[in-house]
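Title: Comparing notes on inverse folding

I've been comparing how different people in this forum approach sequence design from structure. To keep things fair, I'm posting one structure and asking everyone to reply with a full sequence. Here's the target:
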């Protein structure tokens, strides 16, 4: 085998290596769904983004469940450590319909008797239902998914653009990661929070980001996309920090030069 390189002419060897490397690429190629989404969305820009500009892009509307009522019947403070992604599996309700249902206590369940989560995302809008400093009822009863995570529901109503919804959700999650210092490993599918007492404790949710009901390549692609959006916000902070350091350095040098000249003028008696 060691002699093969001497036997095969260089051009043929190069061709063999090319074929081998393309085989390798094919093995790691994304599924058609992920490939289609990535092509439609394009790559995430690899440039810094001001976090407040990113916030404006979200088109976030705040329509909180009345304090002390329904899903907010009990005040339960939360310091968010995770972000949980769901999808509504509701073919008729848009984000506004879900907000309306939550605001009148129409969705029963959970520990407090009413379901609630923090954000609902549709293709062009996000609606916030409860503050991120309060726990929701969206994942696993009294488990860590509810006690420590921000719940995001992605809409699935007819006419809703799924790709735009995914991207808006990725940007929202990135923004929440940034503002609450949540690491990328703590982005969870609802699937990751088992529901005690259920015959299928790990729910197939968000179903269109899972393979055979489990997180796989599609889920990893989505988390990667969130991480790329988050990197842009972190890069902005780094750029601001670098600029401040440069300004400080320039100021220090200017002072040194001024001190040097004033000493020199003292020595040669120009004043
Ligand atoms: Zn769910």
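Reply #1:
Here's my take.
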């Amino acid at each position: 085998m060691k002699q093969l390189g001497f036997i095969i002419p260089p051009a043929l060897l190069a061709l063999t290596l090319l074929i081998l490397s393309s085989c390798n690429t094919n093995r790691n190629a994304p599924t058609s769904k992920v490939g289609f989404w990535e092509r439609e969305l394009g790559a995430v820009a690899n440039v810094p983004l001001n976090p407040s500009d990113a916030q404006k892009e979200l088109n976030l509307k705040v329509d909180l469940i009345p304090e002390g009522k329904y899903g907010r019947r009990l005040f339960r403070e939360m310091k968010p450590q995770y972000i949980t992604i769901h999808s509504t599996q509701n073919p008729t309700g848009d984000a506004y319909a879900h907000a309306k249902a939550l605001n009148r206590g129409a969705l029963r369940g959970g520990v407090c008797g009413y379901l609630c989560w923090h954000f609902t995302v549709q293709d062009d809008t996000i609606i916030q239902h409860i503050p991120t400093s309060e726990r929701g009822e969206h994942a696993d009863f009294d488990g860590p998914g509810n006690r420590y995570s921000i719940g995001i529901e992605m809409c699935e109503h007819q006419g809703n653009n799924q790709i735009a919804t995914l991207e808006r959700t990725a940007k929202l999650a990135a923004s929440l990661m940034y503002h609450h210092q949540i690491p990328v490993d703590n982005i969870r599918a609802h699937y990751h929070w088992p529901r005690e007492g259920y015959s299928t404790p790990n729910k197939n949710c968000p179903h269109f980001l899972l393979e055979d009901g489990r997180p796989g390549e599609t889920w990893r692609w989505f988390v990667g996309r969130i991480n790329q959006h988050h990197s842009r916000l972190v890069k902005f902070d780094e750029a601001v920090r670098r600029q401040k350091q440069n300004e400080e350095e320039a100021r220090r040098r200017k002072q040194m030069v001024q001190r040097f000249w004033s000493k020199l003028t003292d020595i040669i008696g120009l004043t």
